[in-house]
Amino acid sequence: MPVLTYQQSDTRSGGQGLLMTMCLAVLLVQVDTSVVNLATRAIGEALHAGVMGLQWVLDAYNIAYAALLLTGGLLADLYGRRLLFLYGTAVFTGGSLLCAAAPDVAVLIAARAVAGAGAALLLPASLSIIRVAWSDERSRNRALGVWGACNGLAFVVGPTAGGALVDFFGWRSVFLIAVPLGLLAFGCALRVVVESRDPAGRRFDALGQTWGAVTLVAVALAGIEAGRNRAAAAAALLAASIALLLFLLTERRRGSSALVPLDLFNRRRFVGVLAATAAMTFGMYGVLFLVPLSWQANGVLPAGTAGLGLLPMAVVFFGLSNYSGRLAERVGARTMISGGTAMIGLGLYVIALTSAGTPVSLAETGLVMTGIGMGLNTGPLFGVAVAAVPAARSGNAASLINVARMIGATLGVAVLGSAFALANSGAWGLRIAMALGGTVQLIGAGAAWQALRR
């Protein structure tokens, strides 16, 4: 039996406070991810860390996040979405504080893993809370549009704030900034979030969690190693395939009490948005990785200016996401999701027409088109995903769509980065990678159009 199911309107002060709290939490996590990238050089100099150590500063977060993502959604449904949101915020904030105080790179890597574990509890709980709090589809889509816009805002704030913090206050400030924000999110959640849970006869699935975690960690490791150790990447993909098979066999035996009930994948609309989400992040993270890298490698723009070159895309993403819920009411989520994903693909094709990102004006046109596509489809993607399953399974849905995001992002960086490297990281490398990424976007758009038909 559910402890409490409640409905709030996005026009009431209580609903606004709740939405602000959920947005603050997702902004906290996403900004933290982007600002750390700008602090790696300073961290390496201060802690005498080499390239591999710095890579693990970034990767420890991703691996911990991947390992616990499925569990975070299930625990929210079983023991309380508010409780898991509070736990996740506290763990993330504590991990950030440990990062800021780290005396050496080993402690920093461990603290980053703690922060990743907190994010794995926090993000699925926040999306699940929105699903339960706004039971009306129209108001929920508007709330998710604003929530999704925070991903775009993170791209606006992250690079600019990260550079300024490192320059003026040192690398530890990049982690310290998360502490007051985390405390604010925690305090707001105590006041405005009403507890809800729906165990519905389920229980913690330790074996499913083990094989699910091994699968996701192996996928993440394959992406991490693809550009530097192909043998290790291939071994990780093999391990991921075996673990996935064992995971599916385990979940099939457990039926409705599984960590991830397999009957969720009988829902055509849900599977469609998972595919579109993975396609979106495949292209988006490939662009974020390769375009600034090409600018810098070919002497087009220096590091600081290359970061600012991504700003128009981020601004468009953020601005349009705020209105995606209202637009979806007019033209339909199917059109928004498919059209947005296709727009990202067209943006990547435009970037493929450049020569190592030049002329910059043409590259910026492609980046803005990519931002438009992300702004159109991010909110509706989350809206359809959580609406396609019963409210009792909202934690599962929230976890799975974030799994799709992570897998798409990891494979996008790995596959497109490898295509770029095979062409000697030059102009043709960027063209091939962007054309491949654009093709994946169009395939995802077509799959979403088919899956989301009434």
Quaternary organisation: single chain
Name the CATH superfamily classification of the largest domain.
MFS general substrate transporter like domains
Question: What number of structural domains do the residues give?
Answer: 3
Element string (H = helix, E = strand) = HHHHHHHHHHHHHHHHHH
Count every helix, treating DSSP H or I runs of 4 or more residues as helices.
Answer: 18
Overview features:
Growth Hormone, Chain: A; disordered N terminus; mainly alpha; 18 helices; 81% helix; 454 residues; single chain
Description:
60% of the residues are buried. The protein has 18 helices and no strands. With 454 residues, the protein is mainly alpha-helical. Helix 3 runs antiparallel to helix 9, helix 9 runs antiparallel to helix 10 and helix 11 runs parallel beside helix 15. The N terminus is likely disordered. 81% of the residues lie in helices and 0% in strands. The chain folds into three domains: 194 residues, MFS general substrate transporter like domains (Growth Hormone, Chain: A, Up-down Bundle); 53 residues; 191 residues, Growth Hormone, Chain: A (Up-down Bundle), CATH 1.20.1250.20.
